[in-house]
Each structure stands twice: as structure tokens, then as C-alpha cells.
Amino acid sequence: MKIKAALPLALCLALCACALGSASAASPSEPVLIVGFSQVGAESDWRAANTKSMQDTFTEDNGYKLIFHDAQQKQENQINVVRGFVQQEVDYIVLAPVTESGWATVLQEAEDADIPVILVDRMIDVLDYSLFTCWVGSDFRKESDIAVEWMRENLGTDLKIVHLQGTIGSSAQIGRTEGLEAGLLENPSWKLVSQQTGEFTEAKGQEIVEALLESGEDINVVFAENDNMAFGAIAAIEAAGKTAGVGGDIAVISFDATSAGLQLTLERKINFNVECNPLHGPRVDAIIKNLEGGMKPEKLTYVSEQAFDATTLTQAMLDDRLY
Ligand code: GZL
After folding, report:
1. CATH 3.40.50.2300 domain residues, the chain
2. Could you tell me the pTM of the whole model?
3. CB of 39 closer than 6 A to ligand 1?
4. Other CB atoms closer than 10 Å to residue 203's CB: what's the count?
5. 173 CA distance to ligand 1 middle (Å)
6. 140-276+309-319 in CATH: which number?
7. What HEC string does 260-280 produce?
8. Tens digits of per-residue pLDDT, 210-265?
9. Per CATH, is 33-137+278-292 categorized as 3.30.2020.10?
10. Does the C-beta of 255 come closer than 6 Å to ligand 1?
């Protein structure tokens, strides 16, 4: 049963309880909201932390039934599962879009079925913002500008950069690439040795850097658009008998600041790591509870994030972190 979020919460709860009847695991007075979540995949530590945050939040104890789907980084899988959520008449659809384009048709189907769509993490490129209720995620261009400014201040002028891009067409790749490309224009002494996508995976990051080192390319910086590609780059650098990180042959810049990424930053194998916070579960829970209460969420919500310099990072700082 679809209930307009504009109704007072008490009436929503009463109607939900009647509609769900004995099907709900919650007691009759507590509604169970069915949430369909289309996740990008399981390509990185960041993605695993994001999935865990959602699964830890959307539990029956918290009044939800979560239908989780891993799209294995394929947009067609996401479109198909969102269409399935519409047919199942879930109460909410949460979508972490793998790339920005191609969403208008299926989101129109959700809108026609009066099912709110909440976007998390990456953004979509649509003209009509009414196709989604709201978005919560990161400012990827800002993340990249922070990294580039740190490079300018700390790595000097003679930079020979390997750029490991994320999934082409994803907001994280678009924003982080724009930042580096702006930095290359502003710092003409910086040289882009190679720019390739590692699909946010460790294996492809390692493959790219291995091939470049074997070909004798002169490299002194790896700009990896996520931790897992940085992990692969570091493995390749060390396999080639070189050193990565602070005072090493090749400086490494990374994004995500996952626990594994910050451990390598603490070990000074990553010079600088920009956080991209994946803990969207509680944020989406708050949005849904506000919608159920008849409140209208902000259309776009950017999460606040920090950055970590290996030379000032401490174990205590790692101990305090949630992912
Ligand atoms: C960023 C997210 C990216 C991470 C990668 O918000 O979309 O996707 O940076 C992940 O680790 O694969």
C-alpha cells in the first residue's frame, strides 16, 4: 500500500499496521517499511563499508525490511532491480547509481508508482530533479581540489603523474578527475604520464602501474581515485624494487580514507588520503523517518569530510574512526 508521506505520522503508522497485517515481523503498532536498496557492487573497501552501514541500519528492529541488491557495477542490473522494486511496491527505493547517465526512464516509473527514490553516494545527471526525492553524498570535486592543493604545497613542481581513474562516468571519477585536470592546467611543470581507469579495483590499479614501470616510464606520483587502486599501485611499486610514499621514489595520493587506506597512510606508504564518508545508513534512516513524519528533506545533502597527511596521522586518530 502506498501512503502519501504528507499524512500525519500517527495516521501513517495506523494505516501501515493495517495494510501489513500479519505479514509484518514488527508488533502491530509498529509499521515495517520495505526499503529496496540497489547497491553499485562490492568493488572496494569503501563500498563494503557503505553496504555494512545500510544493512546495519535497515533492520527489522529499526522498523524496516531491507531488500538488498548488488549490481556488480552494471547499470543494467540496477535498472532492472529498481523496476522490480516498483513492481513489488516497496515503500522506498534507495539507489547508489554506478554512473550518472541513463536513469530518467526507470525513475519516472518509480515516480508514476508514487515510490520515493533516495539517492546515495554518487549523483545522477537528470534535467528533472523531481525524479528523485533527495540525494546524500560527497563533493568529489572538492575532495580532489584538497588533494591537488596538498600536492602543490608538498610535492614541489617536477611531478610526473600516473592518474588512476575510477569507473568512468561515475560522479566520484568525474569530480576527482576534474580536480586533477584543473591542477595540471594551473601547474604547467606537472606532467601527466598516464591516465587510465582502474575501475576502483586493486587488481586493475596494480596492473596499470606494473605495466608502466615495466615499460620504464619515469613516474614520481600516483594519483589514485580510491584506496583500493592505491593498494594495487603500492604493490606494483614495491614489486619493481621501488619505494612508495613519504620520502620514497613515488608519492601516492588516495581517496576514501578507509581503515585499510589509513593504515597504509600511517605506515607512510600513502602520502595523503582524502576522506569520502560511506556511512550513509543513518543519514537515509533519518530522511525516511522525516518523510514518514510529513517533513520535506533537503534536495541535496553533502557530507562533511576531512583529509589525512601521513606526516601528522597518529594511531589514536585511526582508533577513533568508525570505518
Ligand atoms: C565514492 C564512491 C567510490 C569510492 C570507491 O563516493 O562512489 O566508489 O571512492 C567506490 O572506493 O568504489
Report:
1. 33-137+278-292, 140-276+309-319
2. 0.90
3. no
4. 14
5. 8
6. 3.40.50.2300
7. HHHHHHHCCCCCEEEECCCCC
8. 999 999 999 999 999 999 999 999 999 999 999 999 999 999 999 999 999 999 99
9. no
10. yes
